Amino acid sequence: MRRILNTAHVYMILGVVSGLYYRELTKAEDFTGDSQLGVVHTHLLALGMLFFLVVLVLEKQFGLTGSRLFPWFYWIYNAGLALTVGMMTVHGTLTVLGRESGAAIAGIAGLGHILLTAGLVLLFVSLGKLLPAGSPPAA
């Protein structure tokens, strides 16, 4: 459980720092347009911090870390999120600096999204195995 809480905490810190980076870089470059840099902050807070706080509740309720698939979910999801927000940061920074980004950045970001999806599938399979079969619906 502590690892899940620490993961949420790290994403909270990264989310706040990325918001500061976005504000300071755009101010230093007198940039007023749109870039992916503006949503890195939100992605880290929502898909990182908030998501892992929900996973923490699921762990408390169902013992999620007892599933043999949990480590796979944890590492694949985190790798996907790191790739996704990393490429968003690179692409957004290049946009603010007035430079073009190549197709490789989009490809790596796509790989990050694929890993995020695979991680989510593993999470749902893990949850499905932990729930008792034929459990009555909550009233």
TrEMBL record:
Mark the transmembrane ranges.
7-23, 35-58, 70-90, 102-125
The record's InterPro entries line, in alphabetical order, gives:
DUF2871
Look up keyword Ribonucleoprotein and say if it applies: no
Query: Which Pfam families has this protein been placed in?
Result: DUF2871
Query: Does Transmembrane appear among the keywords?
Result: yes
UniProtKB keywords: Membrane, Transmembrane, Transmembrane helix
Designated name of the protein: DUF2871 domain-containing protein
Which source organism does the UniProt entry give?
Kitasatospora arboriphila
